What we know:
Elements: H1 5-9, H2 17-31, H3 40-53, H4 56-65, H5 67-75, H6 93-100, H7 104-107, E1 126-132, H8 134-139, E2 141-152, E3 167-169, E4 178-185, E5 188-195, E6 204-206, E7 218-229, E8 238-241, E9 257-263, E10 270-272, E11 275-283, H9 284-289, E12 291-297, E13 300-306, E14 314-318, E15 334-341, H10 348-357
Parallel strand pairs: 1-9, 11-15
Antiparallel strand pairs: 2-7, 3-6, 4-5, 8-9, 10-11, 12-13, 14-15
Amino acid sequence: MSKDYYNILGVNKSANQDEIKKAFRKKAHECHPDKQGGDEAKFKELNEAYQVLGDATKRSQYDQYGQTFDQARSQGGGGFSGFGGADGFNINMDDLGDIFGGFGDIFGFGGGGGQSRRRTPRGRDIEVVLNLDFKEAVFGVEREISLRKTVKCSKCHGSGAEPGSSSETCPTCKGAGRVIKMQRTILGNIQTQTTCSTCQGEGKIIKEKCRHCKGAGLVNEVVNLKIKIPAGIDNGESIRYVGQGEAVAKDGQAGDLYIKARVNQDKRFSRDGFNILSKAEISVALAALGGKIDVETVDGPVELKIGEGTQSSRVIRLKGKGVPETRGGGRGDHLVEVIVKTPTGLSRKQKEQLRDLGI
């Protein structure tokens, strides 16, 4: 019975080549046997359909002959070639490389003409939580911290070789760092490339290993670092120090260090962006008549002017007395909420005086 390749790929007969390729990639990715829930039979059927519809000549023959096309293909005649056989399917590796990405190292079709690209190894990132007082967060501070982490061996500088020792070409991979094998898969015989297990992809073997790190090129040590916390950092914010994380051997790239600020609360102040908030209690007399009081700021005591007839909950702004802005160089403001304190425990005479004043 003739197979409907268009239906298998889920495209219309009027679909162009790009639409056919896109449909094949999507469906093949979903049912690949190496994925959980994959379907080997469905995968082979999809590949068969794409081998026909993905080729302009074979697609034209399929559209013209229909079932006759299937019969001719199975008999190997009539100019229908390039399907099936003892050696498996003919696979377009460029298409499969785009589809499977992570499978490239297994099957050797990682998008670059079958050559796998080695990724530069990278060390792990480290996060350290640093407790700061309110004023330290406002104005910044320099701290020295100690942390245990993986660093490059100071004796061999990460090479893993004893100083003065030489290396030789790996006899297994002949210096290539990778070995090529033929592997039987559901798609037939496929050439694979894998990292050489003898030299771990280096292409060479160390004759004498470093005695300090035993050839690893890495050691675990306690490291002291001076950390500069910038002015204006807020609670929960992090600072990134590139290359101060865990190291990796040889030509690898060290991870990063992240310092996360945990700012302790202050009974006198709170923060709203780059503004600092506080409260100041004043008497009824001061609120009515006006005057001056000293209020505490992060810069020390500052004189605050109270105008006549000040109402409770009024906010008075002290410009430039807030948090330094991390970008721009300016500072926020200090906002003082004035709380008029109502007197208690008044004598009869005092109450009468207040009534006479209309307060």
